[in-house]
Automatic annotation (TrEMBL):
It comes from the Bacteria. This is DUF4393 domain-containing protein. The lineage of its organism: Bacteria, Bacillati, Actinomycetota, Actinomycetes, Pseudonocardiales. InterPro entries: Abi_alpha. It holds the Pfam family Abi_alpha.
Amino acid sequence: MNAERPNGRGTGDEVADLARRAGQLAGWAARTGFALGRKLPGVETAERGVRQVERQLLAELRRRLDEVDDPYHAALTAASAMNRPAVPGKVEASVTLVPARDNHVEPLRAAMAELLNHSIGFGRDRAREYFYAIILRQLTPDEARILSALSDGSPFPAIDVVERTGIGGTGRVALRNASTVGKAAGVSLPDQVPGYVTRLIGLGLVDLDEEVPSLETQYEILLTDETVRDAEKHVKRAKYVRRTIHISRLGAQFWQACDPSFA
């Protein structure tokens, strides 16, 4: 059970503090140039220590996000919506949940009550932190790399492979949102880049825009991509719809809050 600390700082502040510590440690390691100085006496040992501490911080952060910021999990704990302890000297409205049967709470209804109860005491900053934490928990490591590559605002080419119809129109989509951003980001699964980009667009972190002529060379390179070439085999006559992707306003705000290199 996550108890409130005597100084009044709750679990949300602890999660934010862990995120800051992990980010500051990663940023410090990058700035001190461990990779360039491994031949110096003792540096390799120090690097292992830094990485170990960083992993511990990130593991603890993941545990806190999984167990605290997940309303479904919180609804199943003893401190969930029906048993929330009162804060001395503070009067708040709360959502009262009626047990379904046999004095047991339905988990989905309890989770919604937990969210509604959270909303009562959340200020602007805490609500934003919670929102970003929920987004962060949905990202894969490759998607985080892509967002990092887009974080400076640079556009990247994107292509849809669609089936050309007999009257010059377009039919079904064989591939959506193929992009060179995956190679630029150094993702582990290049063939999944279209799915990653689609998910990031769905989360509102990335915007899809019109074709940018100055990226012509990158479009040509993208047409030779194995994923694009494979999609061509699934249509009789391929048509390529060119677009660009870039970080969205929400994505930029989210990255600014989560950027591990910022100290």
